[in-house]
Amino acid sequence: MARGAGHEVRLGLDWFAFVVAFKGVFLEGLEVVFIVITFGLAATERDPNGMLVAAASALVAGVVVLTVGIIARRPLSAVPENTLKYVVGLLLSTFGTFWAAEGLGYFAGGTSLQWPGGDWAILGLLAGGLVLSRVAIRALGLRAVGQPASEQAEP
Fold this sequence. Notes:
Layout: E1 9-10, E2 13-14, H1 15-44, H2 50-77, H3 81-103, H4 121-140
Antiparallel strand pairs: 1-2
Helix pairs in contact: 1-2, 3-4
């Protein structure tokens, strides 16, 4: 699809790249709005200012993310795209597994299930995900993340 889009420049921007990036950022931003509303409504049951605190926290988080993004833009642009995707995938899988298992406690009396070692279990899940993904990459015969095809070892 991207190859068929051509290279149209509007307002000095690659229009196809701009639209794709805008859609991704818009959807993530919409997700954040829903999360803030959910946390704000849940907090309002305990504190009448819960929604205000949730919105202010989201605003502060947005400013921090923008600032870090501006500062880290140049070093991150040097990281190969597939390596960045690999790391983000590992982190999302790690935190998703951690929180999903904790959330299972809802069905067992309404309290969170606890991991052995508490929050330190996140590091164990990350290490396990790294090992499993490397084994899968090797088993599938894929080249290593960030490794050019010319450097790939012959099977």
